[in-house]
Amino acid sequence: MLNNNFSKEHELYLKAVKRRKTAVIIVQILILIIFFLQWELTARYKIVDPFLVSQPSRMIKFMGKLYSEGMLFRHIWVTCYETIIGFLLGTIVGTLIAIILWWSDFICKVLDPYLVVLNALPKIALGPILIFWVGNGKTAIILIALTISLIVTIISVLTGFKEVDEDKIKLLKTFGASKSQILRYVVFPSSIPTMISALKINVGLSYVGVIVGEFLVAKEGLGFLIVFGGQVAQLDMVMLSIIILSISAYLMYEAVALLEKKFTVWRS
Amino acid sequence: MAKLIIENLSMIYHTIEAETKAVDNLSLEVLDGEFLSIIGPSGCGKSTLLSVIAGLLQPSSGRVLLDDMEITKPCSKVGYMLQRDHLFEWRNIFSNITLGLEIQRKCSKESLLKIERMLEKYGLSGFKNYYPHQLSGGMRQRVALIRTLAIDPDILLLDEPFAALDYQTKLAVSEEVYKIIKQEGKTALMVTHDISEAIALSDRVAVLSKRPAKLKNIYDIKLSVENRTPLKSREAPEFRHYFNAIWKELDIHVE
């Protein structure tokens, strides 16, 4: 029922909406450009000390050096890989545990205080134990990322499961549905939006876990570059890594947002 | 012939604070092919009664027989229609309708064809690939009815099926739902608190007391209109007599 013969007034309205959207994007880009430009210039004219805050041109030079050594994408890949595995595992395992807790009210009630304690505990504190158990390496880093996102996922997905409309479940029961059918036909699909928002939160949390893990044990990855750069007073290395980290975190978040769109077509 | 027999049914609810008697020694028969409404003050235990008939709740005492078979768990002979349509937003109209069949693993070529025919007959075939949010409230309720009819139940339980609709839509939809039920030749048991709706649709109206629900009276609705439909029924001269009688029977005091 789309009407393409808009009135003049409507066309003006559409134009105004579009103009505003463009303006927002332009200002967003401008802020970035101005920020880097003033950084470059203030460092060049020694208003700020480039030894302490680095400088965009020096960062680019350093990036070129890393690239020619073939290490740039290696470091990025290691961190992204650990993060993706961490948050996917966190989401999948968390959802599975949430299903068990939904299935058995008894287990859910029994485990409730333990979940609360685990949720309140800063999971980073478990880092040294995990490293002690599985050794210095990727496995430890992934496990740290996993533990950080796991409990939050369990709690938020379980809340999503429990918020499913009782009447929708009643409807399925009148058809004679079993518990696994209720899970499959209504509880799981109607919780997909909750699960995707858990995924979104987990992207950020997993990055925290991975970077901390790399601080502790890694020999490669962006977290390693940051901590190493700090130790050898190479702020170019630190700043560059942080900027690459921001970009990759943003891209990963956008990927999840794309996934969300794909799974919720029925909403549009 | 009695299709559904409710025999000395009592139902007690337990909570930590108290036990509540929702239904008290209620007996009622629904005849084959009739449309029977149960009306009572709000919170009198009408919905509890339907849940027991649907096999979702076990009665404290008494029993429910459908075609002389005792109902103890949900079965495909009973179709249940809730107050809101509860179409699943993530399924399109067609797969919303096949939901019951999928759950009962009865998705045969035959049953799918039957659904196609019903969609055609009730003016929904153009919408089968639409999603629920693209349909109006009245259409959604029609889809919900067809979803219930798709499992081919012997008796339909309607739990205030029009209560969530605005007044005009309610009149239009109850007209359609009534016609569909009659065309499909189904027995129907409706719970409502709307007196005129009960009279307009029903062959008989059972009035329940305040909680715990007991049967107070049953009215045979005989209206002097030809080719009765809910809208035409409302024009019948006897309509307001029944209305007044039931209103008095309900014994609701306005403070």
Protein described:
The complex is a heterodimer of chains A (268) and B (255). By secondary structure, chain A is mostly helical. Chain A folds into 2 domains: 8-48; 61-267, Orthogonal Bundle (MetI-like fold), CATH 1.10.3720. Chain A has 12 helices and no strands. Chain A has helices at residues 8-44, 50-53, 56-68, 72-103, 105-120, 127-134, 138-162, 166-174, 179-190, 192-217, 222-231, 235-263. In chain A, 31% of the residues are buried. With 255 residues, chain B is α/β, with parallel strands linked by helices. Chain B has one domain (2-250): P-loop containing nucleotide triphosphate hydrolases (Rossmann fold, 3-Layer(aba) Sandwich), CATH 3.40.50.300. Chain B is 33% helix and 25% strand. Chain B is built from 9 helices and 10 strands. In chain B, strands 6-7-8-3-9-10 form a 6-stranded mixed beta sheet, with helices on both faces. A 4-stranded antiparallel beta sheet of chain B has the order 2-1-4-5, with helices on one face. In chain B, a hairpin with a 2-residue loop joins strand 4 (61-66) and strand 5. In chain B, helix 7 (195-201) crosses helix 9. Chain A: It is a multi-pass membrane protein. Chain A: Belongs to the binding-protein-dependent transport system permease family. Chain A: Keywords: Cell membrane, Membrane, Transmembrane, Transmembrane helix, Transport. Chain A: It is found in: Cell membrane. Chain A: It holds the Pfam family BPD_transp_1.
